Amino acid sequence: MIIGVVGKIAAGKTTVAKFFEEKGFCRVSCSDPLIDLLTHNILDYSWVPELPERAEPTRDKLIEFGKYLKDKYGGDVLIRLAVDKKRNCKDIVIDGVRSREEIEAVKRLGGKVIYVEARPEIRFERLMRRKASKDRTINSFEDFRAMDDAEERLYHTSELKVLADYVIVNDGTLEELRRKVEGIIGDIAGKV
User: Fold this and answer.
1) Among 3.40.50.300, 3.40.1190.20, 3.30.870.10, 3.40.630.30, what is the CATH number of 2-191?
2) Sign of the alpha-carbon torsion through 33, 62, 133, 79
3) What is the pLDDT of residue 171?
4) CA atoms within a 13 Å half-sphere pointing along the CA-CB vector of 189
5) What is the model's pLDDT at position 133?
6) Phi, psi (degrees; rounded to nearest 5) at 113
């Protein structure tokens, strides 16, 4: 089984993916292949489209290189790489699915897609708490909105909600989110 998790910055995609990981899924992010290629850490792959010049994987660099790879190798290249990286796993959850082509690739592989959403103010608070290195250029709500708007223009993330098999509103507690995810896992297991 393959699960793709879609949503805007800091909506809770990784947390949802971690809940699947707790249930035995191998977790991989769409950005993992980009980070691996940019840092030349490619031992987990059976194929690599091309190796760029070694670079620090900042959010801007990841977006730029991801766009280049998608333009050159197809909009589903990151899904193909993520699945390849975890090819020895029975069940895979892919965090950070970002486009129609990636959703279609997950579904072509027989997978399901979950869209995670949360209000912008909540997402900004989460982003400030997580202090990820890729987010270090975001220091204010205005910076966050600018990055969020840029990502929306690039990926049209909010339009992807209609393509999802499940939608999770993640404005509540961690325990509420866990219950929602466990409900989806139960539903998926019942259909397999």
Assistant:
1) 3.40.50.300
2) negative
3) 94
4) 10
5) 63
6) -125, 135
> Average pLDDT per run of 10 along the chain, which is 192 residues long?
94 95 95 95 93 87 91 96 96 94 96 97 90 73 91 89 97 95 91 62
CA distance 63 to 181: 28
> What residues does each domain of the chain span?
2-191
Q: According to the model, what pLDDT value does residue 93 have?
A: 97
Are 101 and 80 contacting, i.e. CB atoms less than 8 angstroms apart?
no
| pLDDT value at residue 192 | 56
What tokens appear for 170 in the block? Answer: 């993640």
